[in-house]
Amino acid sequence: MDCLMSTRFNGEPRSYTRFNLTQNMEGENSQVEMKLSSDMDEEVGGNGVGEDLNHAKDPYVVRKPAGRTPKNVCFMVATILLIFIISYLIGYLSHRRKELAPPSCSRPTVEESITQGYVKMEADPLMDWSDVKSLLDQKMSASSFESAFSEFASESHQAGSAGDEALANKVLKRFNQYGMYTWTDEHYVKLVDPPASGSNMVTFKGSDLGTLRGYLAYSKTGTAQGAVLHGNYGQMDDLRKLQDKSIALDGRVLLVKSGKISFAEKVANAAKLNASAVLIYPADNSRIGGSTQLFGHVHLGSGDPYTPGFPSFNNTQFPPVQSWALHTDLGTAYHSYPNHDYFKGVGKLGDDKDMVTVEVNNVLAEKMINNVFGVIKGFVDPDRFVVLGAQRDAWGPGFASSTVGTSVLVELARAISDMVKNDGFKPRRSIVFASWSAGEYGSVGATEWLEGYLSSLNMKAFSYINLDGVVTGMYSSCLSLFYSMEPLRLNDPAYPFITFSGIPSVSFRFITEGEEYPYLGTLQDTRDKLNGATSNQVAKLAVSAGQFAGKIALRLVHDHLLRLDVKKYIRQIHIQVYDINSKIKSLQSMQPQLLPKSLTVQWLMSALGSYSRAASSLSTEIDNSDLEEEEMCRNINDRIMSVERDFLSPYVSPRESPFRHILVGSGSHTLKALSDHLDALQDDHSDANADLFRIQFALATWTIQGCANSLAGEIWSTDNMI
């Protein structure tokens, strides 16, 4: 392309510059050809009008001057400066175009991270996976864990206390020493302390049965009285056996063993049957001693129960509310009750006139807690990250419940930071290390973080790895992988990550086969007790736990593709859908007045088919894709990440039903709740409602279909058969 630029000096045309911007077809920078004509010709013999006209006819011809004058020199300098400026601008703009252009998908170029300290990478940063594993193994040792145990062990570090804050500062100092970017997250939450004066009390037939140091946070305060019943573990099946014996729970005090389900679930089950109070005692008194005190909470949820569904920041402008999951029953931990060791199963303890009185005087207090974070930034997708987390607080020493997990967290941060700084490992995605406070009160610190940053975490955090309680025995037992068909338990710290936030989550631990570690939630959770449960192999087992969790995290940030198999859910949905189908058909056959023949599971099964096809299609797409193409790889990973989020029911309130996942969550929106509702209709239960069931049925169907549509990718790829 040619373009003509005229410049003027003192208002008169003095020169013409011709630019030849012919584009090189091979993609090189445009070249500039410049031909200059100036009125210098007038100084060298161009005196007549005719000569000026000749210039006009051919303005691009440069006539060689006959000599040099000061004026000529000025014009030459101005011309050279003009050429230089124009050339510089063109070169600069061409260079900027190269910088701003998207990196080649086949040869990914990593742009400088938003965090300081990262430089542009011109080559694929991947290290061979076998080398990554080997490096991690080399950097974790029993001696380093012994040092960490000594540093993070504490006799007193209850949430919000000075001991908790001291440990938080130690973790933060370690992260800073490793060169990580660090920050803290502050919340003001409602926690529960034991009575400021006096104690909680239990009396039997007017006699005081001893001082209670242990307590259950968030239990209703006050006094309750009633004849005592033994309810085994307090599971609903246990309590139904009482009903089968024509024993009513109304106004009774229920005595149950610890274990099987959470304290909160035990109290909730008793509340459903109108019990007046619940006493919980250690299931394994023979091992831990009859005087052992239990600590825990009875919030049937996670997070601060007085800010359900939203974060407990200091400037939160919500009116005071109470979680749906707090019950009116009194609940307390009790260490000994006459003759209960000899009672197996369920039934009465004593006569109806033998009254038990339970008095709860716990104190509700607002406290500030801090979560501590450190991050190792990724080199390709730094805005995508896996989170490793461990609770920092405990009721007492909490060696197994908090010290080991905190040590594994910090040692993993040290090892992986060293791999990045000194061994050339460059993770594609980021790794966030989180030290939570108030874990003993129901994952309060972690849940408040999820609630505070839900929208930003939604498509950023692609996995959570829980490090709490990873060593409680000798043998490896991987529990509750998010795709394992085994739902996470309500009291698992990973539970809110998947059920509230839709973040794929994993918990694991080393256990002694056939035995539970009985000291969690007691003041006997010490190094000596854990040594006894592990034959003095705590440090060695912590190394194995760190390597196991570290390799999960490193694989997720190393590979192009996130290794989360979306096809695993097909079988789980299939089982639940066919269970619902058989119950609907049975009910329509036996009680057609409840469910009309027009109600069919066709659409639910069609939604299952849509999800199955979308998952299979994505698998085929992955097999046929070049994962070196950065945009394609990112698109596929985003679709994989969206699955758990899209299984969160959009039709229920996070405040009223926080665990919105329809497959592993809890509430009326889940597929399990649909099946249970059909059972209630079959039994003509008072809470059963056929119209409500049909609404829940439709919403569950559309949740599955919506997940299938999202997994399919582009809107034109969705399955419109429904």
Explain what this protein looks like in three dimensions.
This protein is α/β, with parallel strands linked by helices and 722 residues long. It folds into 3 domains: 129-192 and 366-558, Zn peptidases (Aminopeptidase), CATH 3.40.630; 200-361, Glucose Oxidase, domain 1 (3-Layer(bba) Sandwich); 566-712, Up-down Bundle (Transcription Elongation Factor S-II, Chain A). It is built from 19 helices and 21 strands. Strands 5, 6, 8, 9, 10, 12, 13 and 14 form an 8-stranded mixed β-sheet that branches. Strand 1 (2-9) and strand 2 form a beta hairpin. The protein is globular. 42% of the residues are buried.
CATH topology annotation of the largest domain = Aminopeptidase
What kind of sheet is the major sheet? 8 strands, mixed
Total DSSP E strands: 21
Strand portion: 15-25%
Question: What's the mean pLDDT score?
Answer: 81
Rounded to an integer, what's the Rg over CA atoms?
35 Å
User: Which shape, going by the Cα principal axes?
Assistant: globular
* CATH architecture classification name of the largest domain: 3-Layer(aba) Sandwich
Summary keywords:
Transferrin receptor protein 1; 3 domains; Transcription Elongation Factor S-II, Chain A; Aminopeptidase; globular; alpha/beta; 21 strands; disordered N terminus; 722 residues; receptor; Glucose Oxidase, domain 1; 17% strand; transferrin receptor activity; 6-stranded mixed β-sheet; endocytosis; 8-stranded mixed β-sheet
Please render the helix and strand layout as text.
Layout: E1 2-9, E2 12-20, E3 34-38, H1 49-57, H2 70-100, H3 129-139, H4 142-152, H5 162-177, E4 181-193, E5 201-204, E6 207-208, E7 216-217, E8 222-231, H6 236-244, E9 253-257, H7 263-272, E10 277-281, H8 285-288, E11 296-297, E12 330-333, E13 346-348, E14 355-360, E15 363-376, E16 381-391, H9 399-422, E17 429-436, H10 444-452, H11 454-457, E18 461-466, E19 475-477, H12 495-499, E20 505-507, E21 509-511, H13 527-534, H14 538-558, H15 568-590, H16 602-623, H17 630-646, H18 671-682, H19 690-712
Parallel strand pairs: 7-11, 8-9, 9-10, 10-12, 16-17, 16-18, 18-20
Antiparallel strand pairs: 1-2, 2-3, 4-15, 5-6, 5-14, 8-13, 8-14, 15-17, 19-21
Helix pairs in contact: 3-9, 3-14, 4-9, 4-14, 9-14, 15-16, 15-18, 16-19, 17-19, 18-19
Pfam families: PA, Peptidase_M28, TFR_dimer
Membrane topology: Single-pass type II membrane protein
Subunit structure: Homodimer; disulfide-linked.
